[in-house]
Design goal:
CATH superfamily of the largest domain: Glutaredoxin
Order of helices and strands: HHHHEHHEEEEH
CATH topology of the largest domain: Glutaredoxin
Shape: elongated
Structural class: alpha+beta
Number of helices: 7
Largest sheet: 5 strands, mixed
Helix content: 40-55%
Strand order of the largest sheet: 2-3-1-4-5
CATH architecture of the largest domain: 3-Layer(aba) Sandwich
Length: 154
């Protein structure tokens, strides 16, 4: 893995503001930013480990653990909240037994908030992978979770 990390760091280290492009490249390639990336990035960019860790932990986009096979995002924008997304997120947390930014023990589903899927006319909306599903209700969400757990792709 260190070879991959070093190659990604070298590819982006000369860009202006290289830290974010490096972090994005690592997460795009691996699905998360592993702990061993922090000292490599810090050394390459002449930053402290604390500075690198601070950026990783500040942005919710960056994961420090491998994501689940499926990432279930629930929209938390105003339109979706007005149409019931708070109830959907509470239901998802109970059914999955996890909170936002966590993954089920079996590694199947990660739960993430998202702050607009651009599907406001069909609120509330969720996304799995590249598929946005609007007008989501409790029964549909339970069926979606069951489908994801059975290994079907959404």
């Amino acid at each position: 893995m260190n070879t991959t990390l070093e190659a990604l760091i070298q590819t982006h280290r000369d860009q202006a503001g290289a830290l974010l492009p490096i972090l994005h490249a690592i997460q795009d390639q691996l699905g998360y930013v592993p702990a061993e990336a922090t000292p490599l990035i810090a050394k390459s960019l002449n930053l402290s480990r604390a500075e690198v860790h601070g950026v990783i932990s500040f942005y919710h986009h960056f994961r420090t653990t491998p994501p689940g096979k499926h990432i279930l995002q629930i929209c938390r924008a105003e339109s979706c909240q007005a149409m019931g997304s708070r109830e959907l997120e509470a239901q998802a947390k109970v059914v999955l037994g996890i909170d936002y930014h966590q993954t089920t023990d079996d590694g199947t589903i990660s739960l993430e908030p998202v702050y607009c899927l651009g599907n406001c006319a069909c609120s509330p909306s969720v996304r799995v992978g590249d598929e946005v599903q609007g007008r989501m209700n409790a029964a549909q969400l339970e069926a979606l979770i069951a489908e994801l757990r059975q290994g079907a792709t959404a």
